[in-house]
Design a protein that fits this description.
The chain is α+β, with helices and mostly antiparallel strands and about 750 residues long. The protein is built from 17 helices and 34 strands. Helix 3 runs parallel beside helix 8 and helix 15 packs across helix 17.
C-alpha cells in the first residue's frame, strides 16, 4: 500500500520548492502551458530535491530548461537510461543536473530531480507542454491543472512512491494566468476556483485574459471551462514544417490538425436503442468516502454514486440486460452474470446499491475488469461498460491495454470522480474502449454527466468508419493519429496527418469521414486551405508527434516479448527529433559551466504534494473494521432524501408509477387529495404516471438532463396503454399540482 496522505510529517525541514507560476495560452481548443518552478536551498549542505507531480494524461511535454543565477541550461531529450546515467555521472562529479521523466506505470505522472543545488543557491525550472482541451457535456472546453497528485493505490511491488501532506501545510505558492483566443467570440470562462474578472482584449471578444484570484489553496485541481459562441464548427489547421529539420521528416513537413463534429440525422437520434448489456463497475475503495467538493450536506463520493446508480437503473430500457460490480482491494457482483432487466431484478439491484459503502480497501481495478471481459457476450445485446472511480491506481497502462484488447466486444464509458482522478486512466479507458470520458470535480453534479453518457450508450453505434483525403497530386498524406473507432453526436474527433510535398499557396485539400449509422451510410466532409496558419509555432507538430508516440508505445507493449521490429527505437528517434517526451526518453540538463565542484555529502529531499490528511485516517479505520470483523463500519447518518430522487425511486421498471401514499408524499400532497382529484373513469396507474411527469416538467426542469430518459420511458408506457381520459388526467393534474404543463410537452 502507498504512503497515504498526511501520514508523513514535514519533520520541520525546509522544503526547497518556493513557488510555481503557470501561464496558459489557449488557441481555440489547443492549450500551451508554461510552468516555472522556483527552488531555493536554505540548508547548509548541497541538496538533491525530487518533486513528483501530475500532468494531463495526453499532454505533450516539449520544453524543459533551468536557470541558475544568470546561467540558462536547455535540456535535451535522450533515451531514458542514457539520461539517468548522465544525471548520476554529473552528480558524482559535483556538477548540477536536472532530470525530468515520465513514470513507467502512468503517462500522467512525472518526476523532476534537481541535483546538486549548493547551499544558498536558487534555481528556476521552466517546463512547457501542449494539450487538447476536452469537450464537455454542455459544450464547454475543459482545461485542468492538476494541483493534487493523490497517492495512487498500487498492487504490491509497483514503482514510484508519493509523499503528500495536508494542503494547509504546503509551503509553496501558485500563480496562474490564462490568455484565450479563438476565431469565434468567447462567451464566458468559469472555474472551480476564484477568478479575477475576465478581461476582453478586443471589441469582437475573440481574445481575453483571466487570472486566478489571490490566496488559492492547494486543496483541488484548477479547472477552467471555456465557452465560445457557435462552437463546434469543423476546422483544419495546417502548420508549416521547421526550416532547419530534414525535409520528408515529421518536423520538416507540414502537419494538419482536423477537428470534426459529426451531426447525425434527427430521425436516427430520436430512436434510442431498446437493447444492450449494461455493466456498471463502481469504485468502493476507502477514498470514495471523501466528501464531494461542492457538497452542501457533506455528500460523499459514494453517496453521489449510489444516487447515480438509482437514476441509471430507472432509465434502462425494458428488454436489456445488466449487472453491477463493485471493487476495492477485491471485487463483488450483484448477479453471477448479467440478467434481464425487469421489476424483480431492478428491485434486487437497488436493495444492494442502497447498502453500498466505501469499505473495500484499495483500488484494484484490473481483476474485476478481467472477470467482466471473461463473461461471454449476449447475442444481439451490445455490451456497454460504465466505470466509476476516483482513479487513484498505479498500473494505468496495464488497465488501458486490457480495455484495448477487448475493444472489439464492448464500448467503455468512464467517469473520474473528485480531485486527483488520473486523466490518463479515465481518458485512456474511454478512448481505447470506443466510449466517452467525463470528469466530475468542483461544483459538478455526477448525475447529468452520467446520464449524458447513457444517452451516448443508447445511440446506435457508428460502424465502418473510414477517412479519405483528396489533395493536389504533388502532396501525399501520412496519418499520425490512430484510426477513429467511435463517433458521437456533437463530440469532437481529431485527426493529425503529415503532408509531404510542395503545393501552390491557393491549393485546397479535402477530408471525408464515411460511416454507417443504424444501417444508413453517412459522410461528413471538410474542405480546407493548404496555406499554413500564422504563428502557431510547432504546436500542431508536437501534438501530432505525441499522437504517433502514444500509438507506437501501445504497439510496443502489445508486442513485448516478440520481435518488435524496432518499435522502441522508432519512439526514441521520434521523441528526440520532435522534442516531445515519451515513456522511453527523458529530458536531461547538465550545467557544464559551474567550474567549481560542489563539496559535501548530497542530501535527498522528497517534496510533498498537496493531499488531504482528513480522509486517510478515517479510511484506514473504516477499512480495518471491515477486514477484522467482516462487517461494514456504520454508515454515517443520511441527509434527507432529495425530492427528485424520492419520486424517481418509486418508478417501476416498465416506466409507470403506482397510485399509493408514497407517491402522494413525493408530490407533496396527501393521499386523499390525490385520490379525490383523479378523473372518475381514469386508470389509477395512468393517473399516477401522468402526475409524476407533470411534477417533473412543472418543478424540475433545471434537472431535466437527469430525468429525461426515465420520463421518455414513462411516456412510451402511457402511449402503449392507449388509455382513454389522458387529456382529462393532464388537466386535473395541473390543477392539483398548481402547474400548467401542456400534454404535448409530456410526449403524449
Amino acid at each position: 500500500m502507498m504512503n497515504r496522505c498526511g501520514l508523513l510529517t514535514l519533520q520541520k525541514e525546509p522544503v526547497p520548492l518556493k513557488s510555481i507560476e503557470v501561464e496558459l495560452e489557449v488557441r481555440d481548443h489547443v492549450a500551451t502551458v508554461v510552468s516555472t518552478l522556483n527552488y531555493e536551498n536554505k540548508e547548509d549542505k548541497p541538496l538533491e530535491a525530487v518533486f513528483v507531480f501530475p500532468l494531463p494524461g495526453d499532454a505533450a511535454v516539449c520544453h524543459f530548461s533551468a536557470k541558475i543565477g544568470q546561467t540558462q541550461i536547455v535540456a535535451e531529450v535522450k533515451e531514458k537510461q542514457k539520461a539517468r546515467e548522465e544525471y548520476d555521472d554529473a552528480l558524482s562529479s559535483g556538477q548540477q543536473a536536472f532530470l525530468l521523466e515520465e513514470s513507467d506505470q502512468s503517462p500522467d505522472i512525472f518526476s523532476l530531480s534537481v541535483g546538486s543545488l549548493p547551499p544558498g543557491e536558487s534555481a528556476s525550472i521552466r517546463l512547457e507542454y501542449v494539450t487538447e482541451l476536452a469537450v464537455q457535456a454542455d459544450g464547454g472546453l475543459r482545461f485542468c491543472l492538476p494541483g493534487v497528485l493523490n497517492p495512487r493505490y498500487q498492487p504490491p511491488g509497483a514503482g514510484v512512491q508519493v509523499t503528500s501532506v495536508p494542503a494547509s501545510l504546503v509551503p509553496y505558492s501558485l500563480s496562474f494566468s490564462a490568455r484565450v483566443s479563438s476565431p469565434r467570440p468567447i462567451s464566458k470562462v468559469e472555474s472551480n476556483c476564484s477568478l479575477d474578472p475576465l478581461q476582453y482584449l478586443n471589441t469582437d471578444q475573440t481574445q481575453a485574459t483571466v487570472k486566478l484570484a489571490a490566496g488559492h489553496k492547494f486543496d483541488r485541481d484548477v479547472e477552467l471551462l471555456i465557452y465560445y459562441k457557435d462552437a463546434h464548427q469543423p476546422t483544419a489547421v495546417v502548420e508549416a514544417g521547421q526550416a532547419s529539420a530534414e525535409p520528408g521528416s515529421l518536423m520538416g513537413d507540414a502537419v494538419v490538425m482536423v477537428s470534426l463534429y459529426p451531426e447525425f440525422p434527427q430521425s436516427v437520434m430520436s430512436s434510442m436503442a431498446s437493447c444492450g448489456e449494461f455493466v456498471f463497475l463502481m469504485d468502493r475503495s476507502g477514498s470514495m468516502g471523501c466528501p464531494m467538493t461542492n457538497s452542501k450536506q457533506q455528500e460523499t463520493r459514494i453517496s453521489s454514486a449510489r444516487d447515480t446508480l438509482l437514476l441509471l437503473l430507472k432509465s434502462l430500457p425494458m428488454g436489456c440486460y445488466f449487472n453491477i460490480y463493485s471493487f476495492g482491494s477485491g471485487y463483488e457482483h450483484i448477479f453471477p452474470k448479467s440478467v434481464e432487466y425487469s421489476q424483480q431484478t431492478m428491485e434486487e439491484a437497488l436493495k444492494t446499491v442502497e447498502q453500498m459503502q466505501a469499505n473495500l480497501g484499495g483500488t484494484e481495478i484490473l481483476q474485476p475488469l478481467k472477470h467482466i471481459y471473461s463473461q461471454p457476450c449476449i447475442p444481439s445485446q451490445p455490451r456497454q461498460l460504465f466505470v466509476f472511480t476516483d482513479g487513484e491506481v498505479g498500473n494505468t497502462k496495464e488497465v488501458i491495454d486490457l480495455v484495448k484488447t477487448n475493444s472489439g466486444s464492448h464500448r467503455c464509458f468512464s467517469f473520474g470522480i473528485g480531485e486527483g482522478a488520473s486523466s490518463a486512466l479515465i481518458s485512456g479507458m474511454a478512448k481505447e474502449g470506443g466510449g466517452h470520458a467525463q470528469f466530475i470535480t468542483g461544483t459538478d453534479r455526477m448525475q447529468p454527466k452520467v446520464m449524458q453518457s447513457l444517452r451516448f450508450a443508447l445511440q446506435p453505434a457508428v460502424v465502418d468508419i473510414s477517412v479519405t483525403w483528396d489533395l493536389p497530386k504533388e502532396v501525399s498524406v501520412t496519418v499520425l493519429s490512430p484510426p477513429i473507432t467511435a463517433l458521437f453526436q456533437g463530440q469532437r474527433s481529431l485527426i493529425y496527418a503529415q503532408l509531404t510535398g510542395q503545393s501552390s499557396e491557393a491549393a485546397e485539400g479535402c477530408v471525408t469521414v464515411k460511416y454507417s449509422l443504424a444501417g444508413h451510410p453517412s459522410e461528413n466532409q471538410l474542405h480546407f486551405s493548404l496555406r499554413p496558419a500564422e504563428d502557431t509555432g510547432l504546436t500542431v507538430h508536437r501534438l501530432g508527434a505525441r499522437a504517433l508516440i502514444r500509438s507506437l508505445e501501445m504497439q510496443e507493449r502489445e508486442n513485448r516479448g516478440q520481435q518488435d521490429g524496432g518499435v522502441k527505437e522508432k519512439v526514441v528517434k521520434l521523441s528526440v527529433q520532435s522534442g516531445v517526451s515519451s515513456s522511453f526518453t527523458a529530458f536531461i540538463a547538465v550545467n557544464k559551466d559551474n567550474s567549481e565542484m560542489i563539496q559535501g555529502p548530497l542530501v535527498r529531499r522528497n517534496i510533498p504534494t498537496p493531499g488531504d490528511s482528513v480522509f486517510s485516517f478515517s479510511t484506514i479505520i473504516t477499512s480495518s473494521l471491515y477486514f477484522i470483523f467482516g462487517f461494514p463500519a456504520a454508515a454515517p447518518e443520511q441527509p434527507p432524501r432529495d425530492p427528485l430522487l424520492h419520486l424517481v425511486s418509486l418508478q417501476g421498471a416498465s416506466g409507470c408509477w403506482l397510485l399509493d401514499p408514497a407517491l402522494a408524499t413525493a408530490l407533496g400532497k396527501t393521499n386523499e387529495e390525490v385520490e379525490k382529484s383523479k378523473p372518475e373513469k381514469a386508470n389509477s396507474e395512468v393517473w399516477a404516471t401522468i402526475l409524476a411527469l407533470l411534477w417533473l416538467h412543472g418543478f424540475k426542469m433545471d434537472a431535466k438532463d437527469e430525468w429525461e430518459l426515465l420520463a421518455m420511458k414513462a411516456a412510451s408506457w402511457l402511449r402503449a396503454q392507449n388509455a382513454p381520459y389522458v387529456t382529462e388526467c393532464v388537466d386535473a393534474g395541473n390543477v392539483l399540482l398548481g402547474c400548467s404543463v401542456k400534454k404535448e410537452a409530456l410526449g403524449l
